[in-house]
Amino acid sequence: MSQTFVLKKGLNIPIAGEAELRVSKTIAPGIVAVQPTDFKGFLPRLLVKEGDPVLCGSPVAADKKNADILLTSPVSGTVKEIVRGEKRKLLAILIESDGKRECADFGVRDAAKLDAGQVRQALLQSGLWPWLIQRPYGIIADPEIRPRDIFVSAFDSAPLAPDAKFCFGSELAAAQAGVCALSKLTDGKVHVSVDDGASPFASLKQCEIHIFQGQHPAGNVGVQISHIAPICKGDTVWTVSLAGLVAIGRLFTTGRVDLTRKVAVTGPMALDCSYVEALPGTPMSELRSFWGNTQEDTLRIVSGNALSGKAVGAEGFLGFFDSQVTILHEGKEQELLGWINPIRGHQFSADRSYFSWLMPKSKKYAMDTNLHGGPRAFLMNDGYYGRVLPMDIYPVYLAKACLAGDIEKMEKFGIYEVLPEDLATCEFVDPSKNNIQAMIEQGIDLMLKEMA
Amino acid sequence: MNPIFEKGGKLYWLHSTVDAFETFLHVPGTVTRKGSHVRDSIDLKRILILVVIAAVPAALFGMWNVGYQHGLAVGDTSLNILGNWWYGFLRVLPLYLVSYIVGLGIEFASCQIRGEEVSEGYLVSGFFIPLIVPVDIPLWMLAVAVAFAVIFGKEVFGGTGMNIVNPAILTRAFLFFSYPNYMSGSDCWIHYKPTEQLVDGFTGATPLALDGASAQYGTGFWDLFIGTVPGSVGETSVIAILLGAVLLIWTGIASWKIMCAGVLGALFVGGIGDLAGISSIPCYMQLLYGGFAFGIVFMATDPVTSAQTEAGKWIYGFLIGALCITVRLFNPGYAEGMMLAILLCNVFAPLIDHCVIGAHMSRRAKKLKTA
């Protein structure tokens, strides 16, 4: 029997520009990028050089710490360019697609009949292993470890997030194969969280189904873990996104690496908010029709959602894990005496000193990237932030412990349970305009360094 | 901003000041760099200015009351409302000028030294300080006290948000302990010139210190509730303070938990006093006397110096209320205990939070172990 969790805390951020449930375009990109920087804790070693031919699913880079972990090409074609940044840091491997999508064959297999070793081998070789994220710290899972449990969130509550049922509702068989495969890798259970009992994913077998109701970040897997089975010191759990689960399932049901997915193009500045079919590493320039003639320096093009996505710009690429692009206006305008304006009806605030909390929930706001104030020290109480965080932690205390680099306190306040994205709503509402996600990131990096 | 104020420019030493005025006029056009790309339109300027707005009724009433009390003292009640207010306004204005010029001057200078933007915290403290001192306080004393409170109460800890005690309360405490003659007794609460003829039976004592003696003003429930009694400038009118409390609770800026807990704490000790026969004042009247209302609404709820945790707020508020009445009832030396109660609880707030969090953590660990 599935368990229902009703989360009272949280905040749905009403940005305008939700994608309509239709696929407006299928993008067959001429060039795709494999970006090792998408993977936290991945130290890339190149396996190809410029001009090498690759198939869909052939390895292009391996992890220096564990040579078994591979990144593979999502298309077939030739390696066009190796992009390096400062200190020769490997930023991207650009692959020119030949348009044929020839795939390396990994063989159709019944996931239910494989043992753990075979599943691990298949995921590592096909380059799907990096979909497995370890908690704590949010790094790529270590193949040598058997995690306590594996968690999958089958919905996304982030602002303008793609609709999981629309994107993957037709891929139930692949998702089921993915769950079967994952269940071999853990001694515990695979936990799948859905937003209501009628979701197609609520019918998945060989896993525990949980129902989460509430506002963002109810769909964040970190929040769900903290309600289902919190991570204590010494625990290791893995998480997989729904896109990853489906990709893993497809590997077993079709024998191929197939990372195509529906990507929601959203945001107040997007002209025709809808879905496109695309691959990870698709250049943003392929989406140019979505912002039309708008000057690109007045836009912020984000791969991911508006809270935790990465600003990649018009020349950037879609991130490996992202199924969403958000197009925002760069809010560089100054607003005369805006801070005291009693109404300010076009601005959203979760704070009660504005009236937007009295507005109907359906009202959407064309938010931009303006900071709406100057950076200050933390001034409001912990509870001011706690009301948008449905977890049993003290966000301000945790952020301050991270700033101070105090490992004992970080442990005490729950650093093992969170990733920066989980505190994104706290960052959004912060009147002191602190970069809380960056603080948490800093704390996690310190933990990784000290605990290694 | 003019490049002359930027780093390396001739007038760089004015950078923080110019920035403060510029951001006062406009919401700056800065965009998010890290983390969340969109942000809430709330900022500290709005939050803190709303606190000032909440205190405006108390300030306006306080000014009128200065004129009204003066009229009662000299037996001349010919002035109308506006006349009384104007009389009081002229007496209180110098206090505001001193408070803001000294306090903001130090604040601007320290922000420039630290290389930060000027925080709005002092706009609130500076507005409160004239409201919690007697109207006749010599201006040089006020200047010294403000300088002490801002430098040693706030800037040495790193500015607004880092302070342990409320700077406004610290200003008052500094005055109280350094110049007790000007801050207590019956000479300081009503403004009059030494040459003026006072009415027969005049007393400048506040109702709290009156102890049943008769005076030229009423001491009934409604007199205290409306605030037509002598006292610090902004503290006398409970009704004006309640107006502010409504705004603060409506906007969620101040914690209703602290206010409720404070009232409960005061009634608790006041009730014990009644039952044990220690005090002749009904316990609910304690809420109207002296600085209790102003303190619990505006001072105790300062988010920086109050307890941070939700359970901690109940404890913190209750302690303030209880301590205030304890000082009133059991200490013959001080007529009023609100300032001391808040000061002490400011200091203890981190300890309260520490205990609340510790208890929460161990309870949680136990739950996880059994699960």
Description:
The complex is a heterodimer of chains A (452) and B (371). Chain A is an alpha/beta fold and 452 residues long. Chain A has 4 domains: 3-11 and 107-254, 3-Layer(aba) Sandwich (Rossmann fold), CATH 3.40.50; 31-97, OB fold (Dihydrolipoamide Acetyltransferase, E2P), CATH 2.40.50; 262-329, Ubiquitin-like (UB roll), CATH 3.10.20; 371-451, no CATH class. In chain A, 20% of the residues lie in helices and 20% in strands. Chain A is built from 10 helices and 21 strands. In chain A, β18 and β19 (310-311) form a beta hairpin. In chain A, α3 crosses α5 (242-254) and α7 (395-404) packs across α10 (436-451). The longest helix of chain A has 16 residues, at 436-451. Chain A is globular and about 65 Å long. The two termini of chain A are 40 Å apart. With 371 residues, chain B is mostly helical. Chain B folds into 2 domains: 12-27 and 44-194 and 215-253, no CATH class; 254-371, no CATH class. Chain B is globular, with a radius of gyration of 22 Å. The mean pLDDT of chain B is 86. The chains are: A alpha/beta (452), B mainly alpha (371).
Shape of chain A: globular
Question: Mind telling me the CATH class of the largest domain in chain A?
Answer: Alpha Beta
Tally of individual helices of chain B: 14
What is the oligomer described by this structure? heterodimer
Euclidean distance between termini CA atoms of chain A: 40 Å
The major β-sheet of chain A equals:
7 strands, mixed
The largest sheet of chain A has its strands arranged as 1-14-13-12-15-10-11
Regions with little confidence, pLDDT below 50 for 5+ residues of chain A: none
Distance between the termini of chain B: 59 Å
Give the helix level of chain B as a range of percent: 55-70%
Structural class of chain A: alpha/beta
Domain count of chain B: the total is: 2
Total of DSSP H or I helical runs spanning 4+ residues of chain A: 10
